[in-house]
Amino acid sequence: MFEYEIEIDKPLRDVYRAFKDPDNLPRWLTGLQRTEQLSGEPGEVGSVSRQIYLERGRTVEMIETITAHEPEKLFAGTLEGPGMKGTLRVDFVDRGPRTGLRFSGDVEPCSFMMSIFMPFMKKSIRQRQAGDLDTFKRLVEAGEI
Q: Mean pLDDT, to the nearest integer, of 29-41?
């Protein structure tokens, strides 16, 4: 399990709107090329989407299922990809003119090969999530998303 928290110098309404807009995702999620909605309304509980990433020159598909969503409070889901399954949760904290964003997640292997590599991968996954959230913060504060 890993957690990361940032404070964004924008009101909750602006941060949440930028976070929820699927067109913004490729701008701050490393390697994300596009998202394809498979079922449900984007971002709503029960919706399923395919996320296509470019990772070290190869295409990787992840399936995201939204498991919880409370506007301006909580966003949670699962991600399934080649040999792994993960959970994510983002809590939004209203701090007046600023917004706290608390991310937590976990990744578990679903294959023998991934179980061998997972201990080495978890550190890079944590660093990537932190970097992606820092990029999100920078773009929101600059008014670019």
A: 95
